Amino acid sequence: MSRRRINDAAIAALKRQSNFADIWRRLKKNKLAMVGLVIVCILVIACVFANLIAPYDYAAQDYSARLQFPSWQHLCGTDNFGRDIFSRILYGGRISLLVSLMSCVISLVFGGLLGIVSGYAGGKTDNIIMRLCDLLMAIPATLLAIVISATLGGGVFQTAIAISIGGIAPTARLVRATALTIRGQQYIEAARAAGSSQFHIIMTHAVPNCLAPIIVDMSLRIGGNIMMISAMSFIGLGVQPPTPEWGQILNSGREFIRNFWPLCTFPGLAIMLTMFGFNVLGDGLRDALDPKLKQ
Amino acid sequence: MIKFIIKRILWMIPIFLGVLVIVFCLSYFMPGDPVQDKLGSSYTQEDYDALAHEMGLDRPFLVQMGDYIWGVVTRFDLGNAYSSNQTVLQMISARVPVSLAIGLLGTLLVIVLGIPIGVFSALKQNTVADYTITTFSIILASLPGFWLALMCIIVFCLNLRWLPASGLGSFKAWILPVVTNSLMSLASVTRMTRSSMLEVIRQDYIWTAKAKGLPSGKVIFKHALKNSLIPVITMVGGQLGIIVGGSVITETIFNIPGMGMLMVTAINKRDYPLILGITVIISIFVMVMNLLVDIVYSLIDPRIKSQFKSGKKMFIKKNDISFPPVKGQGGPGSGLKEAKEA
Questions:
Q1: Residues A53, A59, A65, CA angle at the centre, nearest 5°?
Q2: Hey, are the CB atoms on A17 and B268 less than 8 Å from each other?
Q3: Structure pTM?
Q4: What was the ipTM of the complex prediction?
Q5: Please, what are the averages of pLDDT over each run of 10 residues along chain B (342 residues)?
Q6: Are A272 and B328 inside 8 Å of each other by CB?
């Protein structure tokens, strides 16, 4: 009887362990990660509903109110065309988040595909794909993005592609490494011995276990990409005006840096906050997905 | 050891050729017509054809690429710049020392400051000092270098007037570009060192060393540090590219006549040979630095040498990340051990 109860407890514990609720419970304990999650949520909501929240139109020019310092009327001041900086940052966030997410997805799709093929096929295929990744990683990611962006020209989609190329090789390596470790695990062997089909094994055992490092990597990558997008539009590549973008607003503020600080300060603050949110959330997720790491 | 280094160097050759191919293809498909740019608005078709012929742009794509690669490999000839009468190599070589100095100084700063601070933070875990360092490094790790540079200009150059805002005239002028360019990497390396050190000092062999009665300094420096540095060195290698890539933007902000600024000018002027040349030079720089990192790596971690000797793996897979959740217990779907204990 008591043995039965222990078994039940073990099964219940197992179920709980494999549940996302457990990950959420661990994530909730991590205060810093929660701060990150809140920041990310607020940002996403603010940017998605920018048209409702923004007090002004991002393109509305008011020449009577140029280069105004922050006030209750203009929370972050106005730029050299009299446009409300706060509204421009909100709308700019849309572009930054969208491009970042898009480039992450592109990196994930291509990198993931290459990584899985590499990890499962092994041998020559693996070798060729990994050497190609070495090649792509020999050029610094920022530089590669700059050159590709110069080739493709400005625009939202072009920028997303330019940034995603640099992310393909690291993602492929990550997915391959994960696939390799999973391939040798006993639970995969057990499932195979139990007669599960290859597809079933991949879907129910391999993919969920692969997901953890990928989720962490993606959440860190989104933050990094946002910085890269801003860096590129900062030097005049990437998303082109009149579309507002954080790096671009920063760049336009450089001209007035001597007398007017808000134009250089607030967009950067937005970039920093976003990166901070995603970085901290990513770290928290890593800890939550891997209780062993927790000290 | 020497065999390892030689093989590692030989491996750089195909990588280098591959980089040349990629970058050449990219610059070939860049928009705009350099011949037209050079001729201006009024020209005849004959002029156009003559100039295109002279610049070698009327040849097929593969011939152009082959010629370029052959030139680079045999004579290190990066071609002639479109926007000036100099060769690309001449234009770049004047700029290399500055960029190199900023990159190397930044890397040095990361190693010299990042690692000791990380170790210190780990040894003082859960003290005020540790919390301060951890908080600062988390914030700094998400601080984009170019924004930090602008903020520093506002504070230190325009308001306090301590440091010059542009150029590299004096020693003081170097501080901001180097620091702002590498602070993000510094913070990441500090965090990495801390967590790696924390992991190592919990290992059994550290307890053994302590139990043997070794002084704690010896335990830390002889046993813990060496092992905790392995992931850190991998990370420093990765940060190199970030520092070098970031210098493109830092140089534009501080008006530093380095390769980064040349790159931005080249892009604006559509000077393809110059863009190509700069990318090639920076890639060589990063490759050489990565080679050095790998050598240091194999010096610190004897396992890599022995791995190489056994002939199982030709190269270190230093970027292969094995993620703990899938390796052992824990993580979704593998809580068996914990369930048993429960």
A1: 90
A2: no
A3: 0.80
A4: 0.78
A5: 82 87 83 72 75 75 82 77 78 84 87 90 87 88 86 82 74 83 88 87 84 83 82 81 82 85 83 84 84 80 59 44 37 36 36
A6: no
